[in-house]
């Protein structure tokens, strides 16, 4: 069963947030995860390296330890690792998908998606029978940035769709944290994001930056 729960909160958004928000939001699971505490999106490459896997696990575990809900897009690679790590360490996670709630992409994540829908929170802005196209996923990234207090980019290539998430976070006034290895690869869009307020996560500062993530989505006392 799909439940739409966004319209009643729409009028409480700022002008910029309204412009970048869906008109409907469908969900399965624990809606209170969108009402309480901090939420951080963890995103990155689908074809993630071994180092990227370790980094994603390390970051997701630290978020759980700081009572922060881990948000991601249920794609293969970094997304799946972030969700599974949050679950493994008894944290909370939200899956924001680019398909209707009853569809699975990739199909290999069906069990993970069903588990999140049953025990955590699964959300989509696409109603049943809505056609899935490549443009659905950048649109999904905008919503994922909207509901998160910050976005962390773990690993990405020059052509990675992860850049859409980063730009949406900056556009919405959310904190954007990019792991140092992405900048070391001379990714042009990541370097440009630094001039718009993105911060670099290093081995020396990542714990401090994560612990100090602000409550940007709850400070105005509204929920999504």
How would you describe the overall organization of this protein?
There is one protein chain. With 224 residues, this protein is an alpha/beta fold. It has one domain (13-211): Rossmann fold. The chain has helices at 7-10, 15-19, 50-65, 78-88, 110-119, 136-146, 162-171, 180-184, 188-194, 206-211, and strands spanning 3-4, 26-29, 39-43, 69-72, 93-96, 121-124, 150-153, 175-179, 199-201. The longest helix has 16 residues, at 50-65. InterPro entries: DprA, DrpA_SLOG. This is DNA processing protein.
From the 3D coordinates, which CATH architecture would you assign? Answer: 3-Layer(aba) Sandwich
User: H/E series, N to C?
Assistant: EHHEEHEHEHEHEHEHHEH
Instruction: Report the CATH C-level class.
Output: Alpha Beta
Q: Runs with pLDDT <50, length 5+?
A: 220-224
Biggest sheet: strands, sense, closure?
A: 9 strands, mixed
Q: How many DSSP H or I helices? A: 10
Q: What number of structural domains do the residues give?
A: 1
Number of strands: 9
Radius of gyration: 16 Å
Question: Which class do the helix and strand fractions yield?
Answer: alpha/beta
Query: Kindly state the mean pLDDT as a whole number?
Result: 91
Terminal residue distance: 19 Å
InterPro entries: DprA, DrpA_SLOG
Family: Belongs to the DprA/Smf family.
GO biological process, one term: DNA-mediated transformation
Protein name: DNA processing protein
